[in-house]
Amino acid sequence: MSTLSLALRNIFRNRRRTLFTLTAIMIGIMALVLFDGFVRYTLWGLQESTIRNGLGHLQLATAENYFTTGNFDPFRYLFTDQEEIVSKLQALPEVKSVVPQVTFAATLASAEKSGIVMVQALPAEFSRSLLSFRQIVAGRDLQAEDRYRVVLARGVAEKIGAKIGDTLTMMVITRNGGLNAADLEVVGIASLGLRELDNIQVYLDLSTAMDFLDITSVPLLITVLEKTEYTGQVKETITQAFNGKTGQPLVVKAWDELADYYQQVQGFYDTLLQIIRFIIMLVVIFTIINTMTMSVLERTREIGALRAIGTQQNGIVQLFLAEGLWIGLLGGISGVLLGLVVSSLINNLFGGIYIPPPPGMAEGYQAFFAPSAATVGRNFLLALVVAVLASLYPAYKGAKLKIADSLRYL
Amino acid sequence: MMVVSLEQVYKEYKLGKTTTTALNGISLQLAEGEMVGLMGPSGSGKTTLLNLMGGIDFADRGRVFVYEQALAEMSDRQLAAFRSRTLGFIFQSFNLIPVLTAFENMEYPLVLQGMAKKERRRRVEAMLTAVGLTAVKNHRPDELSGGQRQRVAIGRALITRPKLVIADEPTGNLDQKTGKAIMELMKQLNEKEKTTFVLATHDPMVVSYTPRVLYLRDGLIVREEVR
Ligand SMILES: Nc1ncnc2c1ncn2[C@@H]1O[C@H](COP(=O)(O)OP(=O)(O)OP(=O)(O)O)[C@@H](O)[C@H]1O
Ligand SMILES: [Mg+2]
Predict the structure, then answer these.
(1) Where in the sequence is the domain holding A279, given as residue range(s)?
(2) Model pLDDT, residue A359
């Protein structure tokens, strides 16, 4: 008769109360598994969209400053041995594509209005994969042979009153301080999902942009990998391989270093998750303390008898801690299982749940639950630890009962 | 060597403003192999006296020795070991562990002693036979009659072969016939193993088995009979 098996029998003495306690833990842990799964899915979605929103997995430039002020002076940061670097990158098995890109500020004018825009130019064949978050809402996307044609973000089109087929004039300060202008035909209007981008972004094919700016290389190489997990490892490889071997300094940034928004969202969710976890655990702790205290009280005489026949105070503590352990174990397992079942039900049967547009986003999305083994394990362990900790005080009270008094207890 | 020795023992209980004197300067000695009955009206201090002998309660003044050891000076761990190895407790209301079977209830004190499983099994089976419970060994207390429960409790108290058995109204919840059978059992053990018994009771049948009877009143021994 080990303490553990005695404890297991004891927790089922008052079935109704134990079931109530287990249900409380189960629901709490289920909620945590669901919320963890939701956050993970959302962050994963945000991560992938951030990467496809033009960040790529890794960005290479010639100076740290490029990442902060490069858009306003792209000429300063142009690669001198771009071809060599690109071919070396493409030789890596994890690398899917290397996309040269130039971004710059320009003035865009229609017949009536003009405005400052941010031009993003990359080879048109990459716009589908790297700018896949855009939805073409009118006209079409750029194609490889689209010279001097432009795709406008929806907000830009509205601001300057442009439609498909209109011809707009773009003006830019050139490398030597002169002013260059070109006429561009509007072929498409895109919705970008992020309101701030919608009001400023326009797209050109890279060859048009290089011609227009009169440059032969770009200031930024975007590297897209086969899988997001490879990011850290490839960054390491590149940093090692190119260190000091190129004429210019080389700065490599991973996508998450550049995605301030992603990091904010992640931080926000982490904090939220901790608060929710704390509240749920508080409820669970008080439920268990209550159950255990009642159990100790009800079994006062029995504790007295156990002590009278030679059980040490420690033995009583161990017994009630073991009961807490069982409650945590059973509640944790059922909570985790229920969480997994409910997430797969919602994912598969209901096709996720609709989340209205988060702040700063133009559109809502369909959320799924993607609980990971790690979060499931973490929540299960949490249930165990919390249940044992919550049993400490009642167990101690039970052990400290005066034997003679508890034997007289009715 | 005396099994139990009390010197001028006082015990009071305070409940709010009222103070009850449970033991009022009792002195007492029990020798090895004695079987002693403890009688007296309700509230005369019988249970209190037994509790002090068992080290589950402590005197306000005076000293309690069991096998020449002062119980008041022992730690919880030492007292637990003393109760486990030297003592057997029998209560009026049995106080069995409800989730354990008759077998497991008797086995429990041996588990506490860390005895190997095989030896435990052997001893419990023998005890089940001695108290006549082999047929119901896998029943839990709520599936047993009062007499069967008390026999489990006795088995549990005797299984460790204690030197001193403390019984507080062991027949209080039993009919006369079952009570007698229980007393026969204890008498046998007392004669065979020289186990010392102290039995608090209101039942004249019980003291008919005890050669020495102490009569308590208001926390004092007022009369002693030796037959
Ligand atoms: N924990 C306690 N708190 C207050 N008073 C107590 C306590 N324990 C015992 N008493 C009092 O001490 C006195 C002696 O009690 P005790 O239980 O020893 O009597 P008893 O002889 O065993 O009585 P009974 O025959 O009814 O079992 C009684 O007056 C009782 O009310
Ligand atoms: Mg009594």
Answers:
(1) 3-49+262-408
(2) 61
* d(CA B193, nearest CA chain A) in Å: 20
Tens-digit pLDDT profile for residues A43-58: 888 888 888 877 899 9
Mean pLDDT of all residues in B59-84: 94
φ/ψ of residue A138, rounded to 5: -150, 150
Residue B12 falls within a domain, yes or no?
no
B179-198 residue pLDDT tens:
898 899 899 989 998 999 99
CATH of the domain at B44: 3.40.50.300
Domain co-membership, A131 together with A80: yes
Percent of chain A with pLDDT over 70: 98
How does residue B199 score in pLDDT terms, banded at 50, 70 and 90? Answer: very high
Interface residue of B48, B95, B96, B113 to substitute, partner A, most A CBs within 10 Å: B95
ipTM, interface predicted TM-score of the complex: 0.94
Binning pLDDT at 50, 70 and 90, where does residue B161 land?
Answer: very high
Q: How confident is the model at residue A108 (pLDDT cuts 50, 70, 90)?
A: very high
Residue B110 placed within a domain: yes
The answer, yes or no, to whether residue A360 has pLDDT greater than 70, is no
* Domain edge (last residue) among A219, A249, A279: A249
> Is there a domain that residue B47 lies in?
yes
Kindly state whether residues A36 and A67 are assigned to the same domain. no
Residues 314-373 of A with CB under 8 A from B: 315
Report yes or no on whether pTM surpasses 0.90: no
Which residue has its alpha carbon closest to ligand 1 atom 3? B13
Nearest to A99 by CA among A128, A66, A63, A64: A128
Q: Which residues in chain B are closer than 8 Å to A6, comparing Cβ atoms?
A: 97, 99-100
The reply to whether A398 and A306 lie within a common domain is yes
Average pLDDT of the residues of chain B = 94
How many folded domains does chain B comprise?
Answer: 1
Q: What residues sit around ligand 2, an ion, with C-beta below 5 angstroms?
A: B 46-47
CA-based R_g, chain B, Å: 17
Q: How many independent structural domains does chain A possess?
A: 2
- Amino acid A199 reads N
Range of the domain at B198: 33-51+76-226
Does residue B82 lie within any of the structural domains? yes
Residues with CB under 6 Å of ligand 1 are A 405, 408; B 13, 15, 20, 22, 40, 42-48
**A116 phi and psi angles, rounded to 5 deg:** -80, 135
Cβ-proximal residues to B38 (8 Å cutoff; 6+ apart), any chain: B46, B49, B50, B198, B199, B200, B201, B213, B214, B216
The span from the CA of A269 to the CA of A291, in Å, is: 32
Cβ burial, residue B39 (10 Å; 0-12/13-18/19+): buried
What number is the average pLDDT over the span A86-102?
Answer: 91
Residue ranges of A 380-399 with Cβ closer than 8 A to chain B: none
